[in-house]
Amino acid sequence: MTDTDQDASPRTTTFTVHDPGTGEPLAEHPVDGPAEVARAMDRARSAATGWAALSAKRRRDHLLSWKRKLASSLDEVAESVAAETGKPRADAELEVVLTLEHLAWAARNAGRVLGRRGVRAGLLAANQRATVVHRPLGVVGVIGPWNYPVYTPMGSIGYALAAGNGVVFKPSERTPGTGVLLSRLFDAAVPEHAGLFCTVTGPASTGEALVRSGVDKVAFTGSPGTARKVMALCAGSLTPFLAECGGKDATVVTADADLDAAADAIVWGAMSNAGQTCAGVERVYAVREVHSALCDRIAERAAALHVGADPSTVYGPMTLPEQAGVVRRHVEGALAAGARALVGGSASLSGPYIAPVVLADVDEDAPAMTEETFGPTVVVNSVADVDEAVRRANDSPYALGAAVFCGDRRAGAALAARLRAGAVSVNSVLGFAAVPALPFGGSGDSGFGRIHGAEGLRAFTAPQSVTVQRFAPPVNLTSFTTTATARARAVALARWLHQRR
Ligand code: NAD
């Protein structure tokens, strides 16, 4: 919970957050249980009543105040992100900047997207004025991951608040300090609605307590395995659920692509944040004619990356020490099955800092091709043509993001349309992440539902449909006093019209 509440109730149980690079302890945080979560829920729910009653314009003004507060606290927020995740400070700053863009968009567009609008009433109800309005759900429970501890959960938090809800946020147990800081800055920027956005801290049990606390929707970001468990909990109370899970994103490179630009973007998309990006580049399918030239360019760039603990590093340690074991299993499994290591290999995998690994000719059934690796590795496989590239890219249990590199922009967009992915960028990687108006989310093991954009606002609302009768209908179809003759005439007229159109 927020600092004020933590002061009010001393706790006995805490957990320690460690620096991912050194393993040194960073801070202690309370393990919030059902009682603390219930208090956070109460605070958020009572604040949400007044928040929902505000005009969209007032909510926009408050959220823009919070955005300004976050912008002026950018150093503090980025410092917290960098300390808890181990990512370089510049990456943490970029994460906050992207979040500011999204928060501004959600604040400015919620009124337009969600406000009451008229719809055509149709022939049978021509005497009605029909409107629909998107109303807030109440309090949204947000459960977040550690890899982008500001940008990712704020895709739910900012949009849920803009839609008129309260929020209780359970950040990852790796990044609780950043979660607490976000709600503290909200209270400081919008004191008259303090408590609308509360943070609770702790491990899985805190997340479970949040799901059981009577929230009106759960917005979850994390692995598909955890999503299944949380969804099963939601099923008990029919609590709506949104799942943003992992990815195994593919990039398709055509024969006429700018190979230097493709290699540059692929290396960044695969290695930035030590590869711990849900929509990072994990698989590349290059057509045979350019495969070798692309491999050379990717290998040259990846081998030149500087990785380590000093400030000039391009990415940091694995945030989650256990993830290094997954990366090892994938790389060693691929090599044992005959893959070629173009850069790095088993020797890259010692300690929390993993050096870049570029593999080619990896068996399509190897875990490196079928499971999320979430490390600074990339596979570049050769395909006969774009049809095979599309088939292989789509042959995955995941369907989150994808990228296409193609000399002809229109052909690239046509190729994008053939990919099974929730978001595709042509001639860039992760181009969609910086566009707040674009919805983001996946299908299959990547989850379902959307954050960001108009869909991301509507995700935290329930539509209410209203008809207002303007005048009595010529034939009243909802009255027992209407004669059988009048009713039959109305049916005959409708039948005649529908047969013609
Ligand atoms: P995770 O599934 O281990 O944990 C996610 C969150 O769920 C954490 O806060 C955790 O404490 C909580 N949790 C765990 N068990 C729970 C339970 N039984 N009930 C309630 N809450 C529970 O995932 P992670 O390791 O934190 O994050 C990495 C994963 O997130 C990767 O798969 C990555 O691809 C994915 N991710 C997806 C997106 C996206 O937008 N699609 C964005 C970022 C990360």
TrEMBL record:
GO terms for biological process: aldehyde metabolic process. The active site is at E244, C278. PROSITE patterns: ALDEHYDE_DEHYDR_GLU. Residues 7-16 have a biased composition (Polar residues). The keyword rRNA processing does not apply. It comes from the Bacteria. SUPFAM superfamilies: ALDH-like. Residues 1-31 are annotated as: Disordered. Keywords: Oxidoreductase. Residues 12-466 form the Aldehyde dehydrogenase domain. One of its GO terms (molecular function) is oxidoreductase activity, acting on the aldehyde or oxo group of donors, NAD or NADP as acceptor. PANTHER family: ALDEHYDE DEHYDROGENASE-RELATED (PTHR11699). Belongs to the aldehyde dehydrogenase family. This is Aldehyde dehydrogenase. The lineage of its organism: Bacteria, Bacillati, Actinomycetota, Actinomycetes, Kitasatosporales.
